[in-house]
Amino acid sequence: MARLLLNMRMVPEDEADDVRAFLRDNGIPFHETRPSRWGISHGGIWISEDADYPRARSLMDGYQAARQARARAAREASLRDGSAESFADIVRREPLRVAGILVGIVFMLGLVALPVVLLWRAAAG
């Protein structure tokens, strides 16, 4: 029976290509499912044979650890040289979006607080 190795939800295409490549290079048979039309399923990369899953999982763990190390090193380098994106950069680039999100947060907090305020007034009155 096939076992899921990688759920494709929010997986960049270069990462999916890397996973496909290391599975092919190591002779591990796999197949893919495509995302559903309505976004319910995001697809995945499946290992076709149960016996190959432990080796594929080991390769995947090594790949993810190396990718994480590269991403952290790139982030540290961007922080050191000042090119890392900050909240202020986002506000300058998309002020209306940030303002809309803040208004939405305040609205949601108001909805959450409304029952408490109404109960407090009812108890006080």
CA(first)-CA(last) distance: 65 Å
Q: Spans with pLDDT under 50 lasting ≥5 residues? A: none
Number of domains: 2
SS field, number of helical segments: 4
Give the full name of the CATH homologous superfamily of the largest domain.
Answer: Hypothetical protein rpa1041
Strand content: 5-15%
CATH class of the largest domain: Alpha Beta
String of helices and strands: EHEEHHH
pLDDT averaged residue by residue: 94
Tell me the major beta sheet.
3 strands, antiparallel
Class by SSE composition = mainly alpha
Going by CATH, the architecture of the largest domain would be: 2-Layer Sandwich
- Number of β-strand runs: 3
What is the CATH fold-level name of the largest domain?
Answer: Alpha-Beta Plaits
- Shape field: extended
Classify the helix fraction into a percent range: 55-70%
Strand order of the largest sheet: 1-3-2
**For the CA atoms, what is the radius of gyration?**
23 Å
How would you describe the overall organization of this protein?
The chain has 125 residues and is mainly alpha-helical. It folds into two domains: 1-84, Alpha-Beta Plaits (2-Layer Sandwich), CATH 3.30.70; 86-125. The chain has helices at 13-25, 53-81, 87-93, 95-124; strands spanning 3-7, 30-33, 44-47. A three-stranded antiparallel beta sheet has the order 1-3-2, with helices on one face. The longest helix has 30 residues, at 95-124. The N and C termini lie far apart (65 Å). The mean pLDDT is 94.
